[in-house]
């Protein structure tokens, strides 16, 4: 089975997708692209939380032209999501998009496809072909009777053949479904058939909780098998909700460096202090931290000290107070109302080289 290090590398701006063991983190704006200031603000927030490539929807020419203003103000590559209208693809490319999401079989005549491919060749822009189980071609759906891995692969081949026939090979493929097991099966099959990098994702995955479960079930085994070159965890709501899930998944698969590790006990009747607000505040703070630091927040004296000693920075709680522990050594006793700010100070001061 081909591994991610063996897929064909393509460049989206200055970010390489494929051909290495780095899995690129993506997200997508949920604001109309023509609302430039709001979109830029959202992208900058996502950048701080670890997003490496951002996708925006292009519904009309106003959206396409807005890309020119957006790319001047952000620091990560931008992918333009386009359906059916090749003119929007051309406008987005001209405006400075670094990547295009477009299915070549859905934009009309071969002449239209050739125009888009030529523009992408001139600018060095890759094309992502996105296959969704819910929108397969009518004849494929009728052939298989329901969405299947074989049907999704057949659909992808049609689009890939068009691009390959035009001698275009800077291709990324995705095979998304709301069914995590179908995603798992299809991506495994695709990794055996196509040499191109794979964009992993479960579509329409729901809330942060359901998305985390579905995405881990579908994408975790793929990542561990060396499959997947870029990833988006789709969550209903703010795209900022996506980043913690994907970073945690990649970290636990040992595919992400400089990602903090937060350990927190589930609490029980032994817990004698308000632990959750401290955990929530530190979890949110760690989303903007790029360090291999392990922070433990433990609720009582039973398991707390033991877990805390294995962390870089820790709190072992007691009765409305807790012990601050650094690399196994007790530093001092803190009241609850001082824990958050003190932990932030210790996280900021932490240096990985000291470990």
Question: What secondary-structure arrangement, pairings included, does this model have?
Answer:
Layout: E1 10-12, E2 15-17, E3 24-28, H1 36-48, E4 53-57, H2 61-71, E5 78-81, H3 86-95, E6 99-101, H4 110-123, E7 127-132, H5 138-144, H6 149-165, E8 171-176, H7 180-193, E9 198-200, H8 208-224, E10 230-231, H9 242-252, E11 261-264, H10 276-286, E12 294-298, H11 304-309, E13 313-317, E14 321-326, E15 329-335, H12 336-349
Helix pairs in contact: 1-2, 2-3, 3-4, 5-6, 6-7, 7-8, 8-9, 10-12
Describe the structure.
α8 links the parallel β9 and β10. The protein has two domains: 249 residues, Alpha-Beta Barrel (TIM Barrel); 94 residues, Sulfite Reductase Hemoprotein, domain 1. It has 355 residues and is of the alpha/beta class. It is built from twelve helices and 15 strands. It is an enzyme of class 1 (oxidoreductase). Its cofactor is [4Fe-4S] cluster.
Name given to the CATH homologous superfamily of the largest domain = Dihydropteroate synthase-like
Order of helices and strands: EEEHEHEHEHEHHEHEHEHEHEHEEEH
Q: Alpha-carbon distance between the termini?
A: 37 Å
CATH topology of the largest domain: TIM Barrel
Gross CATH architecture of the largest domain: Alpha-Beta Barrel
Q: Which CATH first-tier class of the largest domain would you pick?
A: Alpha Beta
Query: What proportion strand?
Result: 15-25%
Total domain units: 2
DSSP, total strands: 15
The number of helices is 12
Average pLDDT number = 92
The main pleated sheet reads as: 8 strands, parallel, barrel
Strand order of the largest sheet: 3-4-5-6-7-8-9-10
Give the helix proportion (percent range): 40-55%
**Poorly predicted runs:** none
Structural category: alpha/beta
Radius of gyration: 23 Å
Overall geometric form: elongated
Cofactor: [4Fe-4S] cluster
Protein name: 4-hydroxy-3-methylbut-2-en-1-yl diphosphate synthase (flavodoxin)
Family: Belongs to the IspG family.
Keywords: 4Fe-4S, Iron, Iron-sulfur, Isoprene biosynthesis, Metal-binding, Oxidoreductase
């Amino acid at each position: 089975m081909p591994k991610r290090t063996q897929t064909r590398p393509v460049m989206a701006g200055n970010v390489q997708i494929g051909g290495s063991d780095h899995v690129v983190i993506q997200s997508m704006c949920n604001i109309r692209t023509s609302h430039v200031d709001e979109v830029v603000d959202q992208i900058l927030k996502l950048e701080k939380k670890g997003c490496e490539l951002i996708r925006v929807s292009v519904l009309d020419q106003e959206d396409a032209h807005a890309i020119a203003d957006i790319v001047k103000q952000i620091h990560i590559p931008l992918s333009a999501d386009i359906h059916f209208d090749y003119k929007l693809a051309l406008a987005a490319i001209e405006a400075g998009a670094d990547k295009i999401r477009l299915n070549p079989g859905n934009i009309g005549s071969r002449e239209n496809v050739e125009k888009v491919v030529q523009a992408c060749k001139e600018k060095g822009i890759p094309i992502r072909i996105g296959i969704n189980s819910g929108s397969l071609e009518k004849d494929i759906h009728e052939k298989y009777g329901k969405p299947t891995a074989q049907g999704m692969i057949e659909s992808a081949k049609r689009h890939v053949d068009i691009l390959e026939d035009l001698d275009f090979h800077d291709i990324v493929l995705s095979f998304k479904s709301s069914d995590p097991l179908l995603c798992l099966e299809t991506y495994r099959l695709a990794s055996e058939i196509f040499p191109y990098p794979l964009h992993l994702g479960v579509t329409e995955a729901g809330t942060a909780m359901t998305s985390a479960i579905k995405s881990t079930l579908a994408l975790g085994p793929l990542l561990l098998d060396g499959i997947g070159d870029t990833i988006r965890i789709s969550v209903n709501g703010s795209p900022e909700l996506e980043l913690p899930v994907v970073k945690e998944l990649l970290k636990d698969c040992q595919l992400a460096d400089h990602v903090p590790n937060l350990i927190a006990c589930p609490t029980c009747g032994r817990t004698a202090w308000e632990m959750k607000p401290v955990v929530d505040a530190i979890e949110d703070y760690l989303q903007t931290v790029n360090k291999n630091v392990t922070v433990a927040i433990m609720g009582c004296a039973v398991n707390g000290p033991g877990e805390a000693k294995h962390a870089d920075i820790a709190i072992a709680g007691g009765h409305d107070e807790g012990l601050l522990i650094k690399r196994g050594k007790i530093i001092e006793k803190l009241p609850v109302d001082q824990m958050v700010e003190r932990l932030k100070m210790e996280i900021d001061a932490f240096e990985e080289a000291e470990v």
